[in-house]
Design goal:
CATH topology of the largest domain in chain B: Rossmann fold
Structural class of chain A: mainly alpha
Helix content of chain A: over 70%
Order of helices and strands of chain B: EEEHEEHEHHHEHEHEEHEHHEEEH
Largest interface: A-B, 34 and 38 residues
Number of helices of chain A: 11
Distance between the termini of chain B: 32 Å
Strand content of chain A: under 5%
Low-confidence stretches of chain B: 288-292
Largest sheet of chain B: 6 strands, mixed
Number of helices of chain B: 11
Mean pLDDT of chain B: 90
Structural class of chain B: alpha/beta
Low-confidence stretches of chain A: 1-7
Oligomer: heterodimer
Radius of gyration of chain A: 20 Å
CATH class of the largest domain in chain B: Alpha Beta
Shape of chain B: globular
Number of domains of chain B: 2
Number of strands of chain B: 14
Helix content of chain B: 25-40%
Chain lengths: ~260, ~290
């Protein structure tokens, strides 16, 4: 007797996503990265007298969230990128890949599970980071704040900037080490994040390849002296983040030796 | 008898020019079937082809009547597989890992996971992290994930390698229990004792070629009457013996050296004929140069 095997594409992909999240959230290194990013954020933007004197717009919650999105989230995402880079190779190393290939599982289900798992993990970590720091800001602020004044920019940051940035980091970090030498991937990642870190906010249109400090961030908060939004630059930024994520996924899916032949 | 696995003229040549399998043909019925051979004999390649991970360069493999190349998806629904190297995810618990593998097979019923863990006596360790298990326990978790869904064919690659005797006995019992009721367990190993204890039928691979396939008794009959015990006084007598016969085993004792040899030409007058074992037959297969 054998069981009639069932399960839609979504169901099996969902199982992989679920356990990817479980394994990632259980890694101590993830929380070390998270803690370091939180510490950096609090040192830079905690509403202390010194920081309030240093940062003119810090009493505005939208500025606070836009600032930590531009700087501190970059540290978090950079760390997560390195931690996600081994999600495909770990299956090879542990021998679990041959179990997946011997199971009634398709290449698309496997790849989608890994990619979507990487995306959700990044997005949830980013959201947790933003909400946690906003909670500290709200509780410690020496001035009165309404909850809605904090929540609105927070939701905007998660959806407008967090989603495309998480899609980029999640997909690229999982997929590209599967199609190229992981050392080359680390080098490219280091260069990209280095360029991101070197770019500071400007009144001009920002380069499209900025992950967290591109023109998408202007949708959260705008400087009163330069209140315009360059929509072409915003779209280019969105297209770069989502397009690169999609390209990385396609590269992974068309890689021939990722899976058994003929699947 | 049911022919659950039919391997017909299967060859596998890798891109680097190595021929791992060369025109291998045999059939496997229900029960535990042993696949013997040295490291590098082609056992793992054959197993991977059987579970559809690898595609043979030529030839066909049919599992429960389904062609592995043309009907791979159907074959995979009927197979449980334990690969040779399975480290698993150290951070997951035993239950989570088996449940994860069950999910990839489309099984969502958690009672099936508990049943599989119970079958390998791992239910009490269900919450323990895989990284905290001994080698034997890890192998049991490996077999539990293969048993999920009660597949018709269970393919296990070197499951007892590196295990202590107690774990090996436990493993054998799990496999023989599972093979009841028309199921097939294909056991790849180089440990002859496991095959001797479990399998009525076996196949021997040597350098990618099939050397023997059939009943274990049939293999032993090939060497019946040829296995002899020779008592030597010192090492000088031992020197050069391997040029005249296949030396199966050498035991140093207080009063001399006992040598178990294969002698089908009656070259050793003083040697005493002893009952042949499966291990003798296997060594005969592997060291068959002299006898070919």
């Amino acid at each position: 007797m054998f069981i009639v095997w069932e399960g839609s594409i979504m169901r099996k992909t969902g199982v992989i996503v679920r356990y990817e999240l479980k394994m990632q959230f259980g890694r101590p290194a993830v929380w070390v990265v998270f803690g370091a990013a939180v510490l950096l954020c609090q040192l830079d933007s905690f509403p202390s007298a010194v920081n309030l004197a240093r940062l003119e717009f810090l009493p505005q919650p939208a500025y606070f969230i836009s600032r930590i999105m531009s700087f501190d989230v970059l540290v978090l995402l950079f760390g997560l990128m390195f931690l996600l880079a081994g999600r495909l190779s770990v299956d090879e190393r542990t021998g679990v890949k041959s179990l997946f290939m011997a199971a009634p599982l398709k290449k698309s289900q496997y790849a989608a599970g890994k990619l979507v798992g990487g995306f959700f993990f990044t997005f949830l970590m980013l959201c947790a980071f933003l909400w946690f720091n906003m909670a500290v800001y709200f509780a410690a602020a020496p001035f009165s704040l309404s909850v809605s004044a904090c929540v609105f920019p927070l939701v905007k940051a998660c959806l407008v900037c967090g989603l495309p940035a998480s899609l980029f980091v999640g997909f690229v970090s999982v997929a590209l080490p599967g199609v190229m030498d992981v050392r080359l991937f680390y080098m490219l990642g280091a260069v990209l994040f280095g360029v991101n870190a070197a770019n500071v906010g400007s009144a001009e249109a920002m380069p499209f390849y900025l992950i967290t400090s591109g023109d998408l961030v202007r949708l959260i908060w705008r400087h009163p002296r330069w209140p315009f939004v360059n929509w072409n630059s915003v779209l280019a930024n969105v297209f770069f983040l989502t397009g690169t994520a999609a390209a990385a996924a396609v590269l992974l899916l068309i890689k021939r030796d990722l899976w058994r032949k003929g699947s | 008898m049911d022919r659950n696995i039919e391997i017909s003229h299967v060859s596998k040549k890798y891109k680097n020019g190595v021929t791992a399998l060369d025109d291998v043909s045999f059939t496997v019925g229900s029960g535990v079937f042993g696949l013997l051979g040295h490291n590098g004999a082609g056992k793992t390649t054959l197993m991977k082809a059987l579970v559809t991970i690898l595609t043979p360069s030529s030839g066909t493999i049919r599992v429960c009547g389904r062609d592995t190349a043309a009907q791979g998806a159907e074959v995979r629904k009927r197979i449980g597989y334990l690969p040779q190297e399975l480290v698993m995810y150290p951070s997951l618990s035993v239950f989570d890992f088996v449940n994860y593998m069950a999910g990839t097979k489309g099984i969502r019923d958690k009672t099936k996971v508990h049943e599989a863990l119970k079958a390998v006596e791992m239910e009490e360790y269900a919450k323990r992290k895989i990284g905290q298990l001994s080698g034997g326990m890890k192998r049991r978790v490996g077999i539990a994930q293969a048993l999920i869904g009660e597949p018709q064919i269970l393919v296990v690659d070197e499951p007892t390698a590196g295990l202590d005797p107690e774990e090996r006995v436990r493993f054998r019992s799990v496999l023989s229990r599972y093979a009841r009721g028309g199921r097939t367990v294909l056991l790849s190993t180089h440990i002859v004792e496991d095959v001797h204890q479990l399998c009525e039928e076996l196949a021997v691979l040597r350098r990618g070629k099939l050397f023997y396939a059939g009943k274990a008794d049939g293999l032993m009959q090939r060497v019946e009457g040829k296995v002899k015990l020779l008592c030597l006084e010192d090492e000088r007598q031992l020197a050069g013996l391997d040029r005249k016969a296949v030396v199966l085993q050498t035991t140093y004792e207080k009063d001399g050296i006992r040598v178990r040899i294969m002698d089908d030409g009656g070259n050793f007058a003083g040697a005493k004929t002893v009952t042949a074992t499966l291990e003798d037959a296997y060594v005969y297969c592997m060291g068959g140069k002299y006898y070919a």
